[in-house]
Prior knowledge:
Layout: H1 7-29, E1 33-39, E2 49-55, H2 58-74, E3 81-83, E4 90-94, E5 98-104, H3 105-111, H4 113-116, E6 131-132
Parallel strand pairs: 1-6, 2-5
Antiparallel strand pairs: 1-2, 3-4, 4-5
Amino acid sequence: MTAAADPKRRTAGKRAGQLAREAGEILDAGKALDITRIDVRGLTTITDHMLIATANSRIHARALAERLVERMKERSRAITGVEGLPAAEWVLVDLGSVVVHIMLAQVRALYDLEELWNLKPAPAGDPTENEAS
């Protein structure tokens, strides 16, 4: 049964999309740069969406990740894990159906996750809606 035909998967997809929007808004409020959302539902079973954001410095990356975790906990959202905080060059915040990558510009350019997933982000006015497909 496809996601379109399965009401449970459609509902879960809507919740994942809402979670991605919330995370994007939190990152945007923290002055993250170049926030991109990638829908990976048809590409992997690990997560539904990935958010990729650029931080100005290690301190900024750490602050963005800590703020994201704090705000999600305030909203009773589950945090599956946080990786990379000590070095803060690439911090991953796993929200289950959304994985957030907060990276320094040079690290983001080096790993180029958008290209790795063979996707190019669509231009968008709203950084929380910059979804690649």
